[in-house]
């Protein structure tokens, strides 16, 4: 089935594991050829001052804004930067070795919120841990830099070594007006909507959608959330049937209850399940990382990223909104 596109036509923000690797002073971008000496956009010193490194013109690397006008740097010398050129999608790593900085440039026509997932690596390239950062409200044509900490990484195995490199795993971007909200100020809609990390077992996937009334008035729900699926390039995904009830996919998922009217007082919440299988048979597998959720007719849309890997099944089950008694 054909779905209406997002109001903001964002380009694909897909970063493959190994797409970007910061191993030397300068800019590292995926699939880049060596154009000669690097022209760094951000200079930084190692140690405690890394997080507040200065950029040309006296700006700070963690809070810079402006168009991208510098010269590309060279690719990682170990060849690990091959793959899709994520830099053209607006995210890359800049800064000298030991002081990695994420540089995010919004090339789209609307304000966007970016979530970047990355590995911290040892000198030998071993992945020690993964981390994630969200950069909100990047305006069109603007650049924001966010320093990556190599020290505040929690507990690592005793023989793991210290992180010295960064490799971007994945980048996701959504219109800021539709960004999910689990914490922070209450959205103008008066409700928070977000997705959890889900559960996967034997090819069955279950992800929860959550809604919390953070406003001052009672919020009414009745039925199923409305969904639109989008691929990595933010294009509508066609040919997927959205079925009411998790039982349409598998029994015992917790998404099979009958819909009923809900009146959520301030502080109360509700949940609904997304259920699918990633079975792959004949045909082309379908991946839909973005799901645009409308809690009820007329509600503000929120775009979440449950990373739907639907295989060739062609269907997704969605449960009805159910009261979350623990939210009181």
Radius of gyration: 21 Å
Q: Roughly what fraction of the amino acids lie in strands?
A: 25-35%
Shape assignment = globular
The N- to C-terminal Cα distance equals 38 Å
Low-pLDDT regions: 1-49, 51-85
What's the helix count?
0
Oligomer: single chain
Please give the share of residues in helix: under 10%
How are helices and strands ordered from N to C? EEEEEEEEEEEEEEEEEEEEE
What's the average pLDDT? Answer: 78
**Main sheet attributes: strand count, strand direction, barrel closure:** 7 strands, mixed
Q: How many beta-strand segments?
A: 21
Decide which structural class fits the backbone: mainly beta
Number of domains: 2
Highlighted features:
Immunoglobulin-like; 2 domains; seven-stranded mixed β-sheet; four-stranded antiparallel β-sheet; disordered N terminus
């Amino acid at each position: 089935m054909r779905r209406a596109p997002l109001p903001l036509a964002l380009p694909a923000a897909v970063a493959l594991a190994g797409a970007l690797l910061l191993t030397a002073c300068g800019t590292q971008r995926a699939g880049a050829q060596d154009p000669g000496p690097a022209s760094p956009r951000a200079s930084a010193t190692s140690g405690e001052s890394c997080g507040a490194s200065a950029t040309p013109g006296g700006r700070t690397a963690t809070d810079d804004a402006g168009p991208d006008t510098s010269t590309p740097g060279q690719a990682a010398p170990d060849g690990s930067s091959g793959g899709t050129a994520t830099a053209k999608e607006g995210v890359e790593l800049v800064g000298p070795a030991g002081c990695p900085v994420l540089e995010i440039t919004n090339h789209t026509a609307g304000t966007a919120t970016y979530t970047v997932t990355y590995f911290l690596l040892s000198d030998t390239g071993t992945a020690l841990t993964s981390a994630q950062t969200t950069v909100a409200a990047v305006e069109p044509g603007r650049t924001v830099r966010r320093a990556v900490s190599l020290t505040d990484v929690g507990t690592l195995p005793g023989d793991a070594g210290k992180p010295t490199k960064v490799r971007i795993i994945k980048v996701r971007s959504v219109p800021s007006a539709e960004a999910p909200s689990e914490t922070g100020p209450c959205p103008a809609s008066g409700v928070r909507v977000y997705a959890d990390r889900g559960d996967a077992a034997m090819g069955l996937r279950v992800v929860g959608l959550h809604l919390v009334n953070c406003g001052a008035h009672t919020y009414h729900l009745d039925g199923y959330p409305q969904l639109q699926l989008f691929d990595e390039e933010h294009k509508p995904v066609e040919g997927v049937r959205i079925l009411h009830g998790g039982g349409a996919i598998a029994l015992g998922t917790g998404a099979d209850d009958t819909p009923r009217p809900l009146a959520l007082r301030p502080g109360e919440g509700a949940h609904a399940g997304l259920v699918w299988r990633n079975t792959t048979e004949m045909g082309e597998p379908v991946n839909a990382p973005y799901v645009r959720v409308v809690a009820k007719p007329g509600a503000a849309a929120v775009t979440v990223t449950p990373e739907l890997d639907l295989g060739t099944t062609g269907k997704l089950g969605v449960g009805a909104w159910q009261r979350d008694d623990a939210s009181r």
